[in-house]
Amino acid sequence: MIDSRDLNELSPAARKRAQTFFAACADDPYLLANGITVIATSTYRDFEAQDAIYARGRTAPGKVVTKAKAGDSWHNWRCAFDVLPLRCGKPVWSTTGTDGEVWRRLGEIGETCGLEWAGRWTTFRELAHFQYTGGLTLADFKAGKTMMA
Ligand SMILES: [Zn+2]
To answer: Where is the Peptidase M15C domain (predicted)?
Structure first.
């Protein structure tokens, strides 16, 4: 079972944008002024790991954390990564007030790096999730298509 937080596990096209994103965060005046650093908490996840997460809150203890079964998450196709901002080393879990501003800034930076930010999604909005799919759909990936770098 693979549940990685290593950017090297992303597809080359997604990895390139992710690296640009983390470099831009490290250089961003607003984030710097607020003592914010950003880490990756999840990148590539294999089908087995996805099914284990899907089971949470259904057939396993805990609360539901995903609507995606194996193959239905962009993490399964090396396109997506999740981030966590740290303020002076401590995780920023809250999404309101100043913390909300931090998440919004991360989203803006991601978008300038050519990433899609799930913080804009209207269903299953996820502030931590960024992806680059190269214009392909999940059905494309399931059919064996691959994206260009
Ligand atoms: Zn994600």
So the answer is: 68-132
Distance between Cα 76 and ligand 1 center (Å): 10
CA proximity to 50, closest of 28, 26, 75: 75
CA distance 83 to 5: 9
Domain 7-142: which CATH number of 3.30.70.100, 3.90.1150.10, 3.30.1380.10, 3.10.450.40: 3.30.1380.10
Asked if residue 132 lies in contact with residue 17, where contact means CB atoms within 8 angstroms, the answer is yes
End-to-end CA distance of the chain, in Å? 26
* pLDDT > 70 in the chain, percent: 99
Cα(128) to centroid(ligand 1), Å: 7
Ligand 1: distance of its center to the CA of 81 in Å?
5
